[in-house]
């Protein structure tokens, strides 16, 4: 397939890429009805790109059956209102199975989670992604890069073999490294998504990103959309006004090695009466002393 065949998918990446939470019922199972309601709220709020089974969706805490359920619920709710970028990962056969399952249910793209393995060689990184990308040549493939050692040349090597590798979720917290990596890989060859959400979006956009991921968007879609509108128009002062608005919320999420990354989002949603606050280990519900602060921030945004 030529890159022109992936025009819709490329456009969907150059946007707010929402990472929905996975709400749990009182018995600990995935709450299907609440999940659908939260997805509808995102769609009604103007979100047009959804990533089920992302980190904010607690990908690593879900069973294989739950990951399939979350993918199916998302694709069903999205219909023709949004492009779905389904998260896949773990061992190669599991990732391939997940990618094919997503394709069968109507997904247009998959995001491949950073390989979770103590020993990752650069050539092995290429092999891992190539095996997944070649299994679903009709889908756009987006590697999720958190490895600061990986070179842009390796991404270019992967895309030479797999033309369906069309975008990158870049999540190394270093704007200078991102700028160099993107240029070494091919700035115009891929859609560059700032994978560390709103706090990093302005600096990464200045270096060539055209989309960013968001967990905050679950709480306040308009805030995230305001930021991307400012960045698209090159209005960095306006984007930084939004940055100031979201700063404390994102600091709470990032504290202690991002221990409360999902917890803070679910706490904000719980404060608005939209879902339960429960998260699964190794995450932990927010301590009482932080709950009021999160609720105040969420209430302060124009929801």
UniProtKB/TrEMBL annotation:
CDD domains: DHDPS-like. The keyword Protein transport does not apply. InterPro entries: Aldolase_TIM (IPR013785), DapA-like (IPR002220). Pfam families: DHDPS. Keywords: Lyase. Transmembrane segments: none annotated. Belongs to the DapA family. This is Dihydrodipicolinate synthase family protein.
């Amino acid at each position: 397939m030529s890159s022109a065949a992936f025009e819709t998918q490329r456009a969907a990446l150059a946007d707010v890429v929402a990472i929905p939470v996975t709400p749990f019922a009182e018995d600990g199972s995935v709450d299907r009805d609440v999940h659908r309601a939260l997805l509808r709220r995102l769609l009604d709020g103007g979100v047009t790109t959804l990533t089920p089974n992302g980190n904010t969706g607690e990908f690593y805490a879900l069973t294989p059956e739950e990951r399939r359920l979350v993918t199916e619920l998302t694709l069903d709710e999205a219909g023709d209102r949004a492009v779905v970028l389904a998260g896949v990962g773990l061992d190669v056969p599991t990732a391939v199975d997940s990618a094919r399952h997503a394709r069968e249910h109507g997904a247009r793209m998959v995001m491949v989670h950073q390989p979770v393995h103590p020993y990752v060689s650069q050539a092995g990184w290429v092999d891992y992604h190539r095996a997944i990308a070649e299994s679903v040549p009709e889908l756009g493939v987006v590697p999720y890069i958190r490895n600061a050692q990986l070179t842009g040349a390796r991404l270019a090597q992967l895309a030479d073999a797999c033309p369906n590798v069309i975008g990158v979720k870049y999540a190394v917290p270093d704007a200078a490294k991102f700028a160099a990596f993107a240029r070494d890989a091919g700035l115009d060859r891929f859609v560059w998504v700032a994978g560390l959400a709103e706090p990093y979006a302005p600096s990464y956009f200045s270096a060539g990103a055209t989309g960013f991921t968001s967990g905050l968007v679950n709480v306040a879609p308009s805030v995230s959309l305001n930021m991307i509108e400012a960045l698209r128009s090159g209005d960095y002062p306006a984007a930084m006004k939004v940055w100031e608005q979201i700063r404390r919320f994102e600091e709470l999420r990032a504290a202690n090695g991002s221990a409360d990354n999902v917890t803070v989002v679910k706490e904000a949603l719980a404060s608005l009466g939209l879902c339960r606050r429960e998260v699964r280990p190794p995450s932990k519900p927010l301590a009482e002393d932080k709950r009021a602060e999160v609720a105040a921030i969420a209430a302060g945004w124009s929801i």
